[in-house]
Amino acid sequence: MRCPYCNSKNTRVIDSRSTDDDRAIRRRRLCEDCEKRFSTYERYEDATIMVVKKDLTREAYDPSKLISGIVKSCQKRPVTMDDIEKVALNIEREINHSGANEVSSTRIGELVMAELKKLDPVAYVRFASVYREFKDVDSFYEEIKSLRDNEDATK
Taking a C-beta distance cutoff of 8 angstroms, is the pair 5, 38 a contact? Predict the structure, then answer.
């Protein structure tokens, strides 16, 4: 395994443990050259799922793209990387359990918004603003108002 910091192949595993759902193994590694630590995950590979984008093009599902989008939404929020990885894992599990070979990017976006709504309302609104392509302040305000109304209804 190459070090993501210095690209060295001289790394070793210093700790291994199962993830909370026992579907993967998290390994803490140490680069013997630059002495930085990083984590890797080992999990079984599901059948390749194709994502159907809005323009009807297709590409292979890439969990790193999902995590990247969630990370951007959660910047400067009290959300840990473990929280983000759990959200991504929940979405990936939902996609895999659907049994379909293809999933629309719209469906993935809806799953992300549902998970972020539970995790952090600000991250949810950030993601929704990009995903739903808010054109003006009014549409942004309506989404926040809807979020507040739902929050008041659950109290």
Answer: yes
